[in-house]
Amino acid sequence: MEENKEVTVAAASCCLGDPGPGGWAALVSNGEMELMLSSSCKLTSSNQMALTAVLEGLKSITGSVKITVTANNRYVVDGFCKGWVRAWEKNNWRTAKNGIVKNKELWEELLSHINQHTITWKWVRGQHGSPSSTRASKEAQQKANDAHRG
Q1: Closest Cα partner for 38 from 150, 147, 148?
Q2: How far apart are CA 36 and CA 11, in angstroms?
Q3: DSSP 3-state of 54
Q4: Hey, how many other C-beta atoms are within 10 angstroms of the C-beta on 33?
Q5: Whole-number Å distance between alpha carbons of 47 and 33
Q6: Strand 118-123 to 66-71 pairing
Q7: What is the chain's Cα-based Rg?
Q8: Hey, where are the domains in the chain?
Q9: Arithmetic mean of pLDDT, 12-36
Q10: Can you tell me whether residue 132 is helix, strand or coil?
Q11: Does residue 2 carry a pLDDT above 70?
Q12: pLDDT at 37
């Protein structure tokens, strides 16, 4: 996606079991163009798929832009909105209870892509968000089903 536009990333994840076959999708739009990104994994977690959806959506955006990220996974949204990620980073990737942060590599890569942007984070319930969120959610479900069958 080109810079100098407001961009939305509708990120969705689906996992058939946790762990289990999963899928992710990110619908990236700047009002003029849309780009659907998606993939699957035979054995993964819902949180890994959610982080991957946001990460891949952000990686498709060039330049420094204003972004609204909607996601159907509270783990990702709360990670940023509640400050968990910055706290984990400051605490050498340990949780408040001194446990190891799961998915550290994905969180670190995600952090490397958010600093250049101004991002608003919003949680949406599955297919009950905007039309973009619904499309991304359906795509993620299809990818999870493909991984399950494949």
Answers
A1: 147
A2: 10
A3: helix
A4: 11
A5: 28
A6: parallel
A7: 15
A8: 6-78+117-149
A9: 95
A10: helix
A11: no
A12: 98
Q: Quote the distance between the C-alpha of residue 65 and its chain's center.
A: 17
Question: Dihedral of CA 129/32/120/25: which sign?
Answer: positive
Whether 76 contacts 124, CB under 8 Å: no
The per-residue pLDDT for 130 is 85
Structural tokens at position 139: 């795509």
3-state helix, strand, coil in the chain (%, to 5): 40, 30, 30
Average pLDDT over residues 88-111: 96
% of the chain with per-residue pLDDT over 70: 95
Architecture of domain 6-78+117-149: 2-Layer Sandwich (3.30)
35: left (phi over 0), alpha (psi -120 to 50) or beta: beta
Q: pLDDT at residue 126 above 80?
A: no
The predicted structure's pLDDT at residue 127: 61
